[in-house]
Amino acid sequence: MRIFDPHIHMTSRTTDDYEAMYASGVRCVVEPAFWLGQPRTSVASFTDYFDALLGWERFRASQFGIRHHATIALNPKEANDPRCTGVLDEMPRYLGKDGVVAVGEVGYDSMTPAEDDAFARQLQMAREHALPVLVHTPHRDKRVGTQRTLDVVAESGVPAEHVVVDHLNETTVALVKDAGAWMGFSIYPDTKMDEARMVAILRDVGTEKVLVNSAADWGRSDPLKTRSTGDAMLAAGFTAADVDRVLWQNPVDFYGQSGNLLLEPVPGFVEEDGPAAGVTFEGSSVLRGVRA
Amino acid sequence: MTTPTPVTATAPGTAPSDGWLSDALHAVESDPTSIGSVFGSVGRHVGRGPVDKAGDPRGIHGTVDDAARAQLVQSLARSASPSETAERLTALYRAGDTAEKRGVLRGLDALTGDGTINPAPLPASVPNPLVAAGTALVTDALRTNDPSLVAAATGPFTAAHLDQHAWRHAVLKLVFMGVPLDAVAGLDERADDELARMAADFAAERRAAGRTVPDDLARITGAGSTSAGTDRAPEPGPAAPEKKDA
């Protein structure tokens, strides 16, 4: 089973996770820019984070045979802090970089005027850079937030097929399907969605335009939830082609719209050998101890 | 055999120390700049447990260090102008850890309770810098995911000054976090139909996912409405009127 996790925050994960992901079939990931547990208080914190996503984290993933891409954005929660909103002026220089496959995560947290402004401005940036958009939907008041998201996207002129609306559930999936956008589902150990519910939704809406992700981050989450969802699909009677459609081809089709996706195997990576000795990023290596 | 030393009972950081607090309060009353040097170490001197251990074991209504910091904030407000107090509270909050941030928020509640911050909105021509600064700090706290901080941001100051949209989100966030809605000052006075609608949607979402519905939702969905519509299929509908109170 080949797996593309279209939404995972690897910055918060360990090298053990990378090894386990590779072993379970993950070959490609997209890491969206989002908030950390600790609120940021300056623009520089964002740019260092963006640089880390496109630099150190891509290197780290490559050492475990996984292609790493990123999406760049001011997230909706921190869009409410005026100390952070200046990062919107820094974003255009990131959106043209290699490995940036979308603008995201944008959208709503508490549905404030500041969030409206950041969302609208970033949709325009996506349009100008011809990039897809990854939209986060809020935890609170999700149905209304999802509808408002779709209204704002429609007003922006960004075509629906360039947009994935993420963290959907039984109450919000139909809105997004009807709008013609891509439907994202985060499979969590407890909250957002689980494998059995995901299979039930796939039976209902089919496999087209459906993205399944682990959204693993610094909270309770599991980077192997993509694999367990694939296994649950097979157990429920879906074919291997259906699983490949959902867990590989759909994210390739969606993020491939950026023209910035790299899917070839990482050159020189041999699973049995693990990370290569003597390879560094700006002087740092993922290895410990004596180096070749 | 030696008797184990009861470290926690005698360590200077855990024993209540009225002397330290009254010294600190006097120091701040005579020199507002001194609050910066005492605010961080309050817990070491007065303790950190709930004010009401029996009735409020989780400290939803505050801890003893919260209460002491609130007193320090009141001393600050007596020794400094409203604008200086607002600036100092903002600085304390921005540089503070979770306990210090909570202390500032409890301080805003204390200033609301003692009348320093007028509970009613002033005419636009008489802006109170403490209301503007306090609202910004409360809004910041409500974006965090620390239950103690979010709970501390739903006290009397928030009840008096936070806009209705943000206030509804604060209430729902407490439900998400499993914090009892007892934390919310003025809950019954400010709860409205839109909050009931949001709560009912949330209950429907939980049921659609086969998950439990938090008991506290019944307090805001309106009388008897938590059992109504239990099996209603979640229908995508038009968005509720946006920002109707903005």
Describe this protein's structure.
The complex is a heterodimer of chains A (292) and B (246). With 292 residues, chain A is of the alpha/beta class. Helices cover 39% and strands 14% of the residues of chain A. In chain A, helix 2 (43-54) packs parallel to helix 3, helix 4 (87-95) runs parallel beside helix 5 (113-128) and helix 9 packs across helix 10 (240-256). In chain A, 50% of the residues are buried. The interface between A and B is medium-sized, with 30 and 30 residues.
Please supply descriptive tags for the structure shown above.
heterodimer; A: 292 residues; alpha/beta; eight-stranded parallel β-sheet; 10 helices; 14% strand; B: 246 residues; mainly alpha; globular; disordered N terminus; disordered C terminus
Biggest contact: A-B, 30 and 30 residues
Sketch the major β-sheet of chain B: none
Please bin the fraction of helical residues of chain A.
25-40%
Distance between the termini of chain A: 34 Å
Tell me the β content of chain A. Answer: 5-15%
Unreliable sequence segments of chain B: 1-16, 223-246
Structural class of chain A: alpha/beta
Instruction: Give the SSE order of chain B as H and E letters.
Output: HHHHHHHHHHHHHH
What structural class should be given to the helix and strand makeup of chain B?
mainly alpha
Structural Rg of chain B: 21 Å
